Amino acid sequence: MKPPRIILAAIALQILSQAAVAQEDLVIEHQGVARHALIHAPSPIPDGKLPLLIYLHGVRPAGWKNHTQPEIDTLANRDGVLAAYPEAIGFKWNYADPLRDPQKAGDVIADDIGFIDKLIQKLIAGSNADPSRIYILGDSRGGLMTFTLMCQMADKIAAAGPFITGMTSTQIAACNPKRAVPLMAVAGSADFYQPYDGIVGKDYRLLSVPETMEFWRVRHGCSGQEFRLLPHRLSEDRTRIILWEWTGCAVNDSVKLYRVNGGGHQVPTFAPGNPEWIKQAGALNHDIETAEEFWAFARKFRN
């Protein structure tokens, strides 16, 4: 039975109201520059060590503090999760070396890997984050940065969610992770900005999503795959999600792809989309709440 639109709107409103709490602006000195991260602690704070969920934004305009994820805050409050929202310099992550448009910390290239590592260590020491339960997810350029962290900090990440992007050829060439990080990817087949089938430019290649997943399939030692069409919620939503799950992996249920057929440069959500952004980025799917899907996937893993 398909829930009426008014029910989905009510769910979205509940998510927003539950998450409307103050965030702590944590300042971390790195490369002589003050770097920032918004921290959302669950209320009330449970006893013991807390899982840490780090969200990496895509390219953002000014007003970064307005770009936290209420869906993440909601699950953080419910399940006792510490959520962190680090800010990229210039709102663009330096996800590979070299880049065409690297962001600088003063006179040097911003070391975003080092910044996020410092953030993790600070939250372990000062906010009781559990070092065995560090989870990272990000979309668009934040998804590219998530892939880089899977390559460079695999020993510190329990699971990852790189969304609406494949990896670049530069990332693939430099990627030699200490372990295969469990991953749940999301990608739209009609993504204009980060095409599902990849793109080739001058001195730049974005791999297709299937090529990217194959890279990780090999590292996870998976021998097969299964797929299924997920239930559809709204008749006016012309996109559909096919869930691809790799089998025979060294660790069970460790590699997944939510392919959004007809989906644009959007992460599926129950919340209503911005009409102007839908015009620019393409169709938005409402069949899953991606943050909840990722948390249900990731929380099974420890590093």
Task: Describe what you observe in this structure.
This protein has eight helices and 14 strands. It is of the alpha/beta class and 303 residues long. The chain has a single domain, classed as Alpha/Beta hydrolase fold, catalytic domain (Rossmann fold, 3-Layer(aba) Sandwich). The strands form three sheets. The chain has a ten-stranded mixed beta sheet, sandwiched between helices. A two-stranded antiparallel sheet has the order 5-6. Helix 1 crosses helix 2. The N and C termini lie far apart (39 Å).
Walk me through the topology.
Layout: H1 5-19, E1 24-30, E2 33-40, E3 50-56, H2 70-79, E4 82-86, E5 104-105, E6 108-109, H3 112-126, E7 129-139, H4 141-152, E8 159-163, H5 169-174, E9 183-188, E10 199-201, E11 204-206, H6 209-220, E12 224-229, E13 240-247, E14 255-261, H7 275-281, H8 290-298
Parallel strand pairs: 3-4, 3-7, 7-8, 8-9, 9-14
Antiparallel strand pairs: 1-2, 2-4, 5-6, 10-11, 12-13, 13-14
Helix pairs in contact: 1-2
Sum this structure up briefly.
This protein is α/β, with parallel strands linked by helices and 303 residues long. It has 8 helices and 14 strands.
